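Hi, can you check this record?
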Amino acid sequence: MTPTKYVFVLGGDDPVILHPYDDPETFASAEPGSVVGRYGSGAAPRGADGIRTALYAAMERGTRRYFLNRGYYLRLAMTASAFVAVYLFLSIVVRDPIPLIDELLLGSLSAAAVFFASERKALSSPRHLDAVLRLRREIDGALFSESRVVDLLEAWRDEALALGPAAFYTIGQGSTLGDDESAEAEALCAALARRWRHKPVVAELYAAIEGGQVPGYLLDKTVRKLGLEEGSLAIAYMRLIPLALRNGTV
């Protein structure tokens, strides 16, 4: 089965592009897949060329990071070995009037040369180049279409923008997702989770909701820490999670 990668374009004054290229799992498989783009109801997002350019850049950064991380500890060991070998050679074999200075300098330069040479080798490997070409072809073939899931999220975000954090208690009430929307909701929740993985306030808010109590100060704190736009999107995200859970996708 061909794996599907979702790209979401959230409209607004400053459109948000959510993609899978910040997830290492995207690069773990060499199996060709497809990219499906989703946006809210209404006119298609403007600047399609700009969106694809942003996806190319994100994909290339993610691919580079993935392949460099795979061999990081080996490269680190090779770098340390090079430093130690040069340092010991200069200390034992070569005598100089100023001890340590030459050994440390040349050892560091040798270690840096080995490290960067190993990075270049990793990035010029056939696997890395094949992955970049394969993922570029997937982006080239991406088709964008309207999505009710994105439409719901945008509507909830806009409601939170208009009413403030207290909108959390009213948005999303009575909403359901169809079976064909379940995978899309899961992918959107996963993309938003990655967006805020370094923002503890979002995890704190989710933990409070899971515990059955959402103190108002946490909602205010989320908006204060993330800003009104991001905070409103995070509040809408909190309302999307139960729908995805209800459909058994997360």
Summary: The longest strand covers residues 4-10. The chain has a mean pLDDT of 86. Residues 223 and 231 are 4 Å apart (CA to CA). The radius of gyration is 24 Å.
